[in-house]
Amino acid sequence: MASLNVGNLGEYLREQRRNAQLSLRQLADAAGVSNPYLSQIERGLRKPSAEVLQQVAKALRISAETLYVRAGILDAERDRDEVETRAVILADPTLTEAQKQALLQIYESFRKENGFAAGDGAVDAQDDDAAGTGTRTAGGTDADPQQTAS
């Protein structure tokens, strides 16, 4: 299988993991992702979502932004507030995937209305389920995003 253009990220993650003296399994457990999925990221075979990168960064105690840049999600000069807003929405464990997508759509519509175009490296939550990071409400059911606004 040909590797994606995320080899730089994988090499960097492997280096950071080794510097932290963590095994692949230990980092995967700490980040809440599967061991095979993390291995594929390190080998450059998978491109992780922003949420997974945030979890890995937290487990390694490094900047998530650094991982975003290395993964190509964020250009070094790109508006950091936009990326942080998106990352916070995607990382919120109390929101369902549908709610996250609804909030991101609303956020993007306000940015467009105020004259800010969507970034080329927009964070995408579609890969989250590949890492097993889907979320549900406390009752275990997906909530209707339109009913969450108060």
UniProtKB/TrEMBL annotation:
One Pfam entry name: HTH_3
UniProt KW DNA-binding keyword: yes
Top-rank taxon, per record: Bacteria
GO molecular function: DNA binding; DNA-binding transcription factor activity
Domain HTH cro/C1-type, chain residue ranges per copy: 13-67
Keywords from the UniProt entry: DNA-binding
CDD domains per record: HTH_XRE (cd00093)
Composition bias type Low complexity, residue spans: 131-144
Keyword Signal among UniProt keywords: no
Chain segments carrying region Disordered: 118-150
Cellular component GO terms held in the UniProt record: cytosol
Chain segments annotated as coiled-coil in the UniProt record: none
Database matches in PANTHER family: HTH-TYPE TRANSCRIPTIONAL REGULATOR (PTHR46797), METHYLPHOSPHONATE SYNTHASE (PTHR46797:SF1)
Protein name listed in UniProt: Transcriptional regulator
Species this protein is from: Streptomyces aurantiogriseus
